[in-house]
Design a protein that fits this description.
Layout lengths: L49 H13 L5 H11 L3 H47 L5 H5 L1 H7 L6 H19 L19
Helix pairs in contact: 2-3
């Protein structure tokens, strides 16, 4: 709230100006708007009846924005001015946006709490139960590797002999090892 305080428009100069110089305009003190008309009095807050608020809320629930003709008709029906209805709807939309934003934030936080509790539950269970990864169990190649029998002595010896012969054959060429074709696919990799 501002108070109107009259202030002198001139500043006293403690010395005299030399003759022949044009007079200097008096210097203003304070804010430029301070020396003008006093500020307007604030209009008291408008209070609406319960019936008016109930009708405004009902209409707002159906329709967030009113066309000027709809607003004028509602104002006439409720014995309010057009400006009052317009302002009430603007304020109500602001409140509605804030409430929906708060609700979304509360939902987001609830979802985060749920995810954190589920994560904690999974971590707790994994500490006490053996790991059974469904992807690993359903992977056919892993399942096949788990069912392999150790190499028999005959198969292993034959595979090594074939690999040695192929290796000897390929090394007799003048190519470096990294340019030679791969050894037989029947040879064990490990």
């Amino acid at each position: 709230m501002f108070c109107y305080v009259p202030v002198s428009n001139t500043l006293a100069v403690p010395f005299s100006l030399p003759a022949g110089l044009p007079p200097v305009a008096p210097r203003r003190i304070g804010h430029p708007y301070q020396n003008r008309t006093p500020p307007k009095r604030k209009k008291p807050r408008t209070s609406f009846t319960r019936m008016q608020i109930c009708e405004l809320e009902k209409r707002f629930h159906k329709q967030k924005y009113l066309a000027s003709a709809e607003r004028a008709a509602l104002a006439k029906q409720l014995k309010m001015t057009d400006a009052q209805v317009k302002t009430w709807f603007q304020n109500r939309r602001t409140k509605w946006r804030r409430q929906t934003a708060e609700e979304r934030e509360a939902e987001r936080q609830a979802a985060n709490r749920l995810m954190m509790s589920l994560h904690a539950e999974v971590v707790t269970k994994s500490m006490y139960e053996p790991t059974r990864d469904p992807l690993c169990l359903s992977n056919a190649s892993l399942h096949a590797l788990q069912n392999l029998q150790p190499w028999s002595a005959e198969t292993s010896a034959a595979a090594h002999a074939a690999a040695a012969a192929a290796s000897h054959h390929h090394q007799s060429t003048d190519r470096p090892p990294y340019l030679q074709p791969p050894t037989s696919l029947t040879a064990p990799i490990c």
